UniProtKB/TrEMBL annotation:
Transmembrane helix as UniProt keyword: yes
Keyword flag Transmembrane: yes
Keywords (A to Z) from UniProt: Membrane, Transmembrane, Transmembrane helix
Record protein name field: Spore maturation protein SpmA
Native organism: Comamonas odontotermitis
Segments crossing the lipid bilayer: 43-62, 140-160, 172-193, 199-224, 236-258, 278-302, 388-408
Pfam family, one: Gate
Domain Nucleoside transporter/FeoB GTPase Gate: 51-159, 276-379
Coiled coil: none
Length: 409
């Protein structure tokens, strides 16, 4: 799957570039593609520099949590649920607690904490994977749920809107919450169908229904707040949660006689080792994405979509937000650039900008997550991970468009 996908980027980019040259008369297109190729290689290294620090920091704290027994405790509590959703993972396995911490960090918008925890979980799952190169069912479910990006507090989107002068930066909060919920639900169901997981089992419902009720109550509470209060609650809750996790890990570790400093350094070394193995995968994926964008293939896709939508008589305003949707599966930085460009060219509170912000907050960089998470453990055969993750991504985009028409149309 990854081999075909990677090759496809280059083939489509080559065809698009030839069309630009022979039909459009753009003789500079190949120079632009080469420039993009080297530019993305440079970006890969810059991303790695950030990952080195983040992974070293959080895997250090996580090692303290492991030795203090916190991860094992969480794994035992969730054992009945994961026994149904991930039957190949032994009860009480450390990966279960790590996955839960990763989901919680993602939901609260704590990206810096979520990625290293997720990589630690993926490595733990690889320890029980009978294949060295093919993704297990548990790894696929974990990756798809990661890629579906359930986010309760999209603080970064509020920040982008504030920077662009939005009078109400949190205007898209509820649309994002609804769209990201749809994405996660579709991701879970798609994997459950392929792997024949018993979602309607009483034990599974006993865990998932309370989460759904708490989420609904949280939505209702936030809907009563003013825009200023909502922004304050989002920022405060995210930062308190992040700092509380650090203090919890260190204090519980100390109480249980764990040598916290030495343990932190031990975990930090693991983070360094994980990070340095990611660069080849990042270079491969980001460079392929870079020439795909530079070739003009993305522009052709947008114009084709606009024509098809206009032929049906439907409103085409949302098409101006699709650059964010189309590049988000490949590159978070590219999607951010597309979002900001849409805000600047269309207006921060224009309909395309609101749709783009909702898409950005409710979808994930699927292929980046795929490259990082599977690359960290040497997985080369992704099996059904890519189609399930892309289906969740598509659900998030469609839901974002539909919800924005309901809220702002």
């Amino acid at each position: 799957m990854l081999n075909g996908l990677w090759l496809g980027f280059f083939v489509v980019a080559a065809v698009a570039a030839l069309a630009q040259w022979l039909v459009g008369g753009n003789s500079q297109i190949f120079a632009e593609m080469v420039q993009a190729l080297f530019g993305m290689a440079k970006l890969s290294v810059e991303v790695m520099v950030l990952l080195f620090g983040t992974l070293t920091l959080w895997l250090g704290f996580l090692k303290i949590a492991e030795k203090a027994g916190l991860v094992d405790l969480l794994a035992r509590w969730l054992a009945p649920l994961f026994a149904r959703l991930m039957p190949d993972v032994p009860r009480g396995h450390p990966a279960l607690g790590l996955m839960t911490l990763n989901f919680a960090a993602n939901a609260l918008g704590l990206d810096n904490a979520a990625t290293p925890i997720g990589l630690k979980a993926m490595r733990a799952l690889q320890d029980i994977n009978p294949s060295a190169t093919s993704a297990s069912n548990a790894q696929i479910l974990f990756l798809v749920l990661n890629a579906s990006s359930l986010t309760l507090l999209p603080v970064t989107i509020f920040m982008y809107r504030l920077q662009q002068g939005a009078p109400d930066p949190t205007l898209v909060f509820l649309p994002i919450l609804l769209a990201t919920s749809a994405s996660t639900l579709v991701g879970l169901i798609s994997v459950a169908v392929v792997q024949r997981l018993p979602l309607w089992h009483p034990v599974v419902l006993a865990y998932l229904l309370p989460v759904a009720l708490v989420l609904a109550a949280f939505m209702a509470f936030l809907a009563t707040l003013t825009a200023t209060a909502m922004a304050q609650v989002s920022s405060l809750l995210g930062n308190i949660t992040l700092f509380s996790l650090v203090v919890l890990f260190v204090v519980v570790g100390a109480l249980r006689k764990v040598p916290v400093y030495e343990t932190f350094v031990e975990g930090a070394k693991e983070g360094f080792d994980v990070a340095k193995g990611l660069l080849p995968y990042l270079v491969a994926m980001l460079c392929a994405v870079g020439i795909f964008r530079a070739s003009g293939a993305l522009d052709y896709v947008l114009e084709g979509i606009r024509w098809l939508v206009s032929q049906t008589g439907m409103d085409t305003r949302f098409v101006d937000a699709l650059p964010t949707a189309l590049v988000k599966p490949f590159s978070g930085s590219a999607a951010r650039a597309m979002l900001i460009e849409t805000m600047q060219s269309q207006g921060v509170d224009s309909f395309p900008a609101l749709v783009a912000a909702t898409i950005q907050g409710s979808t994930e960089t699927t292929f980046y997550v795929l490259a990082v998470y599977f690359g960290a453990v040497g997985i080369q055969r992704a099996r059904h991970a890519v189609p399930c993750a892309l289906l969740a991504e598509l659900a998030g985009v469609v839901a974002a468009i539909a919800v924005c028409y309901r809220f702002f149309g």
